[in-house]
Amino acid sequence: MKRYFIYLSYDGTDYHGWQIQPNGKSVQEDLEHALTTLLRETVSITGAGRTDAGVHARMMVAHFETLQDIDTKQLTYKLNKFLNQSIVIHEIMPVTEDLHARFSATSRTYHYFIHTRKDPFCRKYSCQILYPLDFPLMNQAAAILTEYEDFGAFCKSHTDVKTTLCHVTQAEWVQIDEHHWYFEITANRFLRNMVRAVVGTLIDVGRHRLTIEAFRKVIESGERTSAGESMPGHALFLERITY
Q: Hey, CA dihedral for 237, 113, 189, 21, is it positive or negative?
């Protein structure tokens, strides 16, 4: 068997996430269908992660295996013609069998976008927040994330994860202009719903509803009910994956 990596981007607006769902359209399903059709064999793909419903990926990596020798440039071209406008394939490349799209990844980076005044041109990809936010205080809290390893407080309840340990190496709010910001976070792995829960809790800090010390206690509690609300998925982007 020959293994290939696929580098792609997608707009998650019309999808129920990356992973195949029993009752919803997924990116994985559309990509597997396209590969199966074009290669004329049943193809299964493994992604570097699982984005939730409505979440986007500026960079996603997946792998698949086949007995065929593939013209990667030609297959890239055919996939982009076959797939709808929500998915673009950037590159397909052969890799050794010991490289795994998910387990070989060393870090992932997410961005969560917000805007602080009404903006019709970013409403589909950014979360509008009109109340005042204390961004310096939010950055103080964000920096604390790199001091901890257990993020059970930000994990969606009743999931089948074996561990809630993650190594966060970067977490900060970045200003684009006067009214547009994004939260950037990098870690070796993420829990389901983790980024949106972290952002929701940091928003509580920015509204002065939660102190820095209270933010620490949320993390240390390990309880999802202690953290803030989960923010909407449409403003979240998987930005980078490193190997």
A: negative
